[in-house]
Amino acid sequence: MLEHFQQRKEQVTAALTRLAEIADDLGMASLRVDIEGARLPKLAEGRFNLVILGEFNHGKSTFVNALLGEELVPMGITPTTATINHIVHGEAAKARVVLRDGGTKEIPAAQLAEYVTLEGEHVSEEIRFVELSYPAELLRDRITLVDTPGVNDINQARAEVTYSYIPRADAVIFLLDSTQVLKQSERTFIQRRLLKRNRDKLIFVLGKVDLIDADEQAQALAFAEEHLAAVLPDPQIFALSARKHLEGDKESSGMAPLLAHLQRFLHEERGRVLLDNAANDAKRTIAYLQSSIGIKRGSLELTLEELDQRV
User: Fold this and answer.
1) Which tens digit of pLDDT belongs to each residue from 103-120?
2) What region, left, alpha or beta, does residue 47 occupy, with left being phi > 0 and alpha being psi -120 to 50 degrees?
3) How far is CA 234 from the centre of its chain?
């Protein structure tokens, strides 16, 4: 199995490398930079992107902090996440801003809110993502936890930032709110945006269960299971309270089953998922390059009269 995995990895790496060369020949410098600077290193390192999605004010940042075991990401109604945030393993808490032009800027971890929330003084469209390092056990084996702006955001630019990141996800945790389970906007998003590429790597979390009583929790969970099962066979759903976990009530928070599932998933499925995602990514890039070549070829085959008409 290990030998087969290595062979597949070498094949996909070779394909992506060749695609970068073709992109460069076609003058598509940004695509070449993306392949060589992001996709190839990710495959080489075996880095796994665990992406957290959910609608505005569903408690994504509180949930991320619960996974980390520490209040690192700004929480609450006011500090709404406005950027993509990568959280990686590091020996100490530190942060840096990665800009769209490739530049980076080190920032104090204590000033994170100034760069990642809507109310932040330094929030800018020039920020590609913010990276936070922290010595969390979950992140130790090359796991990147990705906190995103809310899906179905009324701000289309922020929503598109999240949507464009979905194809890069190796696994997705979609956060639902137990006080308003599976709104129509969430069902539409799941069917149109998630199921096409993430069907076998999608985990649902029913959060904020501390805000409802035991009977309401059972009803909310049953409702979620029934409606998700209609579009997804055997959906994985975990009911929990991230707030309770952060406050130290780990036994009744419901986080333990989810953490056990993540540990098992990352141990058993990681290699297959990484290779499948890289191969599918290569296929999408091939289709994109074929389309670009077709357009260029078509323009070269035009007669002078046709060119004059187009101009």
Assistant:
1) 777 777 666 666 565 555
2) beta
3) 22
